[in-house]
Amino acid sequence: xSGKVWSYISDKLEREGALHFSLIDPDPFKVTAEVCAExxxxxxxxxxxxxxxxxxxxxxxxxxxxxxxxxxxxIPTILFPGNITGVSxxxxxxxxxxxxNSTNPxxxxxxxxxxxxxxxxNEIESISMAYLLVSPGKSAAWxxxxxxxxxxxxxxPLAYAMAAELFGFKLVYLEAGSGAEGGGVPPExxxxxxxxxxxxxxxxxxxxxxxxVVAAVEAGASIVVQGTYLEKHVRExxxxxxxxxxxxxxxxxxxxx
Length: 257
Ligand code: 1GP
Fold this sequence. Notes:
This protein is an alpha/beta fold. The chain has one domain: TIM Barrel. It has helices spanning 4-16, 33-45, 63-72, 105-121, 138-143, 155-167, 187-196, 210-219, 228-233, 240-254; strands spanning 19-24, 50-53, 77-79, 93-99, 125-133, 171-175, 201-204, 223-226. Helix 2 runs parallel beside helix 3 and helix 8 (210-219) packs parallel to helix 10 (240-254). The protein is globular and about 40 Å long. SN-glycerol-1-phosphate (1GP) is lined by residues 23, 175, 178-180, 204-207, 225-229.
């Protein structure tokens, strides 16, 4: 089982140039496990390449939701933990993340140390990822005590991204925060960061249409994440809108291969 999801991601990136990940927030105050599984199925049918499960305010036990989603789809389910409560043995893998631009060591290494035994003993495939919060950062920045990167200062996240690569991290995530206004992480920032590092860049937060998703890919993002879009539209239009967005992303990604 070791490295299965990472191989899936890297092989697919090589073949397709860019990937789309769907984020599902298993917040028990908002959605049931059944609704999460339904959203994941629709995302899979629309062509999304993986389901990320997590959120900064995911309180409580997420096992039931992770189990339901993993049973519903063939594509990998990857934990995107907002804290030690975000670990579940029912996922196919997890992003083992460090919030590099937090001002609080808890979010850089403290939570990870507390969760490590659980991850190891349950043999959850772990994919290391540096998590960089860009303005506005939204709930993730508030919860994670982040000193968010100004949107017009791409060299700041670049320095952290290069450090991540030198540490041996597999991925760098540029995050504007779930529900970010203004079209997501600025393309100039994505392009500066991806140009000077050799590990894939994930971009997320505020990508609500095909135009902004394609702009992120054209700027150099290897993976684009959408969460709010899914929550708002995927059940309503049975995934039709998402299908078009994923199609546009793949078309743009294929120019890279
Ligand atoms: C949040 O980057 C993800 O962690 C997704 O953001 O909800 O704005 O799509 P959205």
